[in-house]
Amino acid sequence: MAKRTSPASKHGRGISESEVRDVEELSTPRSPVIYEVVRRLGDEEMERPATSLWWSGVAAGLSISLSVVAEAILETHLPDAPWKPLVTHLGYSVGFLVVILARQQLFTESTITAVLPVLKDLNRVTLWRMARLWAIVLAANLVGTLVAALFFSLTPVLSSELMHGMVTVSRALLELGMTRMFFAGIASGFLIASMVWMLPSAESSKFAVITLMTYLIAAGGFTHIVAGSLEAYMLVIAGDWAWWQAIVKFMLPVLAGNMVGGTALFAVLSYAQVKDEI
User: Fold this and answer.
1) Which of 15, 97, 242, 269 is buried deepest, with most CB atoms within 10 A?
2) d(CA 50, CA 67)
């Protein structure tokens, strides 16, 4: 008579069916699974109506202004000390937490989510869909931060001390040349794309992942086209820059850097590591 095999023995000595399910639930998703989650998210974003993308992008621009406000609050109230910048930069994560957890459209997230579907099926249609998403979301983000900058500057919503703190935080951009802006933008784009790749497997740790990755952008002195645009606008309003300087010295090199870091580096590398498994 053939020996009967117990359910536990099929999966290893002393492991029950319920424990096998627990192992599967606790296992980290394989790279192809994460790729597919991010790719489908990009497909969904590119299928959204233009008006939905626009208003979600404007909301993201408004929300991310809270990063500079939070930094200004810490800058204003913390005592002068060698550790002050490290603590002040914690405020930078606030706006990103609002934008990402609220699922608002942020341009630098789409440098990976919109690119993965294109890499899988490269043709004029997918390229057009990606370009459409990028154009709408970037324009909406920059309009949102401009509205926020004007609101903070032209209304009494903030105290004079906090307004001074926002300008002080923004003046860190004055120390960066265009070359540094570009390469710092590459680092920032890579960090944001890394964060997007990590979120599907983060589950209950999303708050910590977003906080850590965006804190590194501020603490490392890296540049982000959307959050930094509010700082650039504040410098124009304060008289430190003319409009053309905000565009030429900040926006163009940082935009190029973010796209290289998020698309040419992280998205392409992420696709390369799974292309033979999907």
Assistant:
1) 97
2) 26
pLDDT tens sequence across 9-18:
444 456 666 6
pTM of the shown model? 0.86
What pLDDT score was predicted for residue 178? 96
CA torsion, points 149, 154, 160, 166, in degrees to nearest 10?
Answer: 10
For residues 78 and 84, is the Cβ–Cβ distance under 8 A?
yes
Write down the CATH superfamily of domain 29-272: Glycerol uptake facilitator protein. (1.20.1080.10)
Residue 241: phi and psi, rounded to 5, are: -130, 150
Structure-token pair, residue 89: 């930069």
For the chain, domain boundaries: 29-272
Residue 258's nearest CA partner among 189, 176, 166 is 189
DSSP assignment of 185-196? HHHHHHHHHHHH
- Name the token pair of 93: 């994560």
Tokens of 108: 């630098």
Q: At CA 82, angle to CA 79 and CA 86, rounded to 5?
A: 85
pLDDT at position 234? 96
Q: Give the total residue count for the chain.
A: 278
For 192-227, letters b (16+ CB in 10 Å) and e give bbbbbbbbbbeeeebeebbbebbbbbbeebbbbbbb
For 89-146, the pLDDT digits (tens) are: 999 999 999 999 999 999 998 888 888 888 888 889 989 999 999 999 999 999 999 9
Low-confidence ranges of the chain (pLDDT < 70): 1-29, 275-278
Burial of 67 (0-12, 13-18, 19+ CB in 10 A): buried
Residue 137 near residue 59, CB atoms below 8 Å: no
